[in-house]
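Subject: two folds for Thursday's group meeting

Dear M.,

Sorry for the delay on this. The cluster queue was jammed most of the week, so I only got both jobs back this morning. I'm pasting them in the order they finished. Each block is the input sequence followed by the predicted structure tokens. Could you check whether the formatting survives your parser before we put anything on slides? The first protein is the one we discussed after the seminar.
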Amino acid sequence: MVVVILPQLKSGGTEWQTIQLLKGLATSRSCIAWIYDGSAMNTSLLAALRAIGNVEVVLGGAAALPNILKRRPKLIISYAINFYLWEVALKLLSGARLITERRNQYHWFVKERRNCAQECVRNLLTARVICNSRTVALRAAEVERFIGDKICVVPNALGIRPPEGMSDRGRVISVGNIKAGKGASQVLLAFEGIAAEPVASGVTFELFGRMDDPGVLSSVSPDAVAAFYKGERDRHGIFEGAICILHLSEAEGFPNAVLEAMAHGAVPVLSDIEVHRELFSAAAIYVSDARGARDVIEHLLAERAANPGKFEARRRKARELALGFSESRRVTAYEEIIADCLH
């Protein structure tokens, strides 16, 4: 029995990746998906979890612990960052091996770290720490105690099965929840600057994401927000026909939306941060601000009109790189780590 812990079930890349992983792990073993906090539950994700054979969904913190202990778990895989208590209790009471995950750099900025004593206890009890990029692994090892020799890097998998070919609907998109550090205001400023140019005729500019903090858009005109922000949408369908994705996040663990857009043939225009360079290399174009993003996208749109063969080659390069992040490769990596832990 494997217990996979998620503090919440919202519409983020972490949750989608965990569901995908559970599908793979549950083919050979029984699993429990333990979700502490049922508030703001994403109903689509919950339905997807419950549709997986061999996976039981358990909701609630302390109240659920006795029920899980009865199942006599052998392994715990936890993304319970800053929610250490129940994960540590399950580990100590069950004797199961504990694997913890790090998927986002924000948690390792020292000013944002909390519960440091509990964190140290959890890290001492952890058998392996799985990071989804070398960038996150280096940052975690730099500021967290007792994990340096336990780290394994397993990249995320492509979360949406793309179509066989690439369609061109003249869509330039950005995908990311509206909150500090995600670059949403810079994206909208870039879109606002491009949309009125002749080269953008027939092209749509769309920003998708959950509105977590409206204040981050205070520097953008209400007209731009109304024109380009499309709210939160189901991930299936938002990438179809996209020719470019703009992603200006200040820090990332693994930008799933970029990978998914690339798999549909979107050329990535990205903030120049370590994790983007690590994962996407020469398939992406890197910029430092909204003005740089505007200039690059204008150039790409001009190239699409004047030299479609070159532009399509860019799209194929992005797509080929994205398709290399396979679900089976990720599940196999986890299976090897699990086998090593339980040996």
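Second protein, same layout:
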Amino acid sequence: MADMSQLELDLDGGVELREEGMARAATNKQEMLELSRDVAEEIARFNGVVTSDDVRYRLNLAPSNKRDSQNWMGSIFRDSRFTWTGDYVNSKIRRNHAAPIKVWKLAH
């Protein structure tokens, strides 16, 4: 049986670390992030909604085999132009194992 005294459960701390990591990744990839946001806006204007898979496909961004190498993509929709629809779809990217991803729309 695992030693539970060494297992630190801290949801707030985990959320804080995730936010810091995404911000750091976005800063390092600012130019690509802005391009991705513009592409996401274009897709949403045409289709009404957009996902990270849509942006990845349009920009021909192959998923990386390096862990956390594309964390900046998690920041694409952290922009006042977008609002979450409340819906999820399964990712079509094979290595994502059909994980649910958010569906976004334009905020205005």
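Two things I noticed about the second structure. The first strand starts at residue 82 and ends at 90. The chain has one domain: 17-62+73-106.

Cheers,
T.
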